[in-house]
Amino acid sequence: xxxxxxxxxxxxxxxxxxxxxxxxxxxxxxxxxxxxxxxxxxxxxxxxxxxxxxxxxxxxxxxxxxxxxxxxxxxxxxxxxxxxxxxxxxxxxxxxxxxxxxxxxxxxxxxxxxxxxxxxxxxxxxxxxxxxxxxxxxxxxxxxxxxxxxxxxxxxxxxxxxxxxxxxxxxxxxxxxxxxxxxxxxxxxxxxxxxxxxxxxxxxxxxxxxxxxxxxxxxxxxxxxxxxxxxxxxxxxx
Length: 238
Hints:
Layout: H1 5-21, E1 23-25, E2 29-34, E3 38-41, E4 47-48, E5 51-54, E6 64-69, H2 82-92, H3 96-116, H4 120-143, H5 152-164, H6 166-169, H7 172-180, H8 186-193, H9 196-216, H10 222-234
Antiparallel strand pairs: 1-5, 2-3, 2-6, 4-5
Protein name: TIGR04222 domain-containing membrane protein
Keywords: Membrane, Transmembrane, Transmembrane helix
């Protein structure tokens, strides 16, 4: 069955948006999502090439998302600077209106126009608004590059990429926060950022990943010692 071009266009935009937002988490990684409050996940039960699939809420495109590992031994490992993290998250607020606008234009307005009023001038005006918003995002990346921990080349590269692919521009907050990540050990980060129930939940899921990894670690291997150290640190979350 041949699908109409309009359906394929909307499906392509949605697929690009979701593909760019999806994470494949290593067994030792936790994704920390900052929406109305902090949430944590080790991914879904679905695996792809040994990694756990995690798809953030597609209806909340402006939530920041960070990776952090629970396998670090803490010795010589950089600690999170909480005031700096707060400043970074506050700086991301400047991009959130553009995220929501791009999300609405491409996933709501575009399908509505194609369905009810596919006039060339209307579609041209929509395209101009979408690319204009992407240009504003690129300019903000350049203007606030120090707050986003980007150098000149990185800011220009990311801005160019988002101009070339507007569906990816919806995820600019996620892209910046994932690029930064969180420093330190996931267990310490969880204790600092999450409420008690969320800490207990993520502790259980980390424990499951730990047991899974220890089943495959050889006796006396360096990884086994790191896993044992991680298991000891996990007890502090219980």
